[in-house]
């Protein structure tokens, strides 16, 4: 491989717009760089002709429960668990749901020793529970982001949690009281002056298309796409066993997973690129704007400075897209790891 790559002749997803400029990569570091020195010969720079296609930052998955038959709550010993994680998620930032925790307990008592707890990057809290405001302040001091959700909280309780340090809403409209014109609940916070980041599941199962469009349009720079996918993601349709979290047989039909013999929704198996395409179709936003909800907005919320945007100094993690948002290639640190056949 040449010391440098340059991606040319394409459209670059840049802050929710399409731009045209060359993207240079130092293959020794895997980082995006300015144009190399003019002293470099052409033989040292390999040109990647995008042929008019779209180069976007690699998608970031903020919230998922598992994939390929592995659920993150299943623990069959440390060696097996580590192998499963290496197989499906080489880089895992943990997101935990903190539904109810005694106010006198420490984070370590709930999530393990200090080293284990340090892997936690984002926690969902129901702000109406006793001690939640103090807990939010403590988590923020530990540099752990706090999201609000899985909750029956009203609007005022949610606002108090935001002022205490809450940063986002977890899968808005799902697992919270419905939006009412006189009692807006947590969902009403997306249109408030204190608007946090908020995630939406754009699978056509958790949210109606019109509801998704309304949520996106409330504040596009704060809207985040997630899959919240369950462990059947990537597996064929069929009947699958339950586990500690869902002690029932699970039926996968397309992207929808239900408890066998019922209409009770367990979750979905939508991929993040499907969510991007759905947002374009249902909200009328551009593909570049939808990509921002699966890249830059997440990086900004989590204060991740090394990826999520095509900027100098960030990782050369890219997806190459066609005009419909289908993923054609994936690049990690300047190395192509996937090409659609």
Distance between the termini: 22 Å
Number of E strands: 22
Shape: globular
> What's the story with the biggest beta sheet?
6 strands, mixed
Which residues form runs of ≥5 with pLDDT under 50? 90-96, 98-102
Provide the fold topology.
Elements: E1 4-8, E2 11-14, E3 17-19, E4 23-26, E5 31-33, E6 45-49, E7 54-57, E8 66-67, E9 70-71, H1 78-88, E10 94-98, H2 107-111, H3 114-117, E11 120-125, H4 132-141, E12 145-148, H5 155-164, E13 168-169, E14 197-201, H6 209-218, E15 223-226, E16 238-240, E17 250-253, E18 256-259, E19 265-268, H7 272-283, H8 287-293, H9 296-302, E20 318-321, E21 327-332, E22 335-339
Parallel strand pairs: 1-6, 2-7, 10-11, 11-12, 12-13, 13-14, 14-15
Antiparallel strand pairs: 1-4, 2-3, 4-5, 7-20, 8-9, 16-17, 17-18, 18-19, 20-21, 21-22
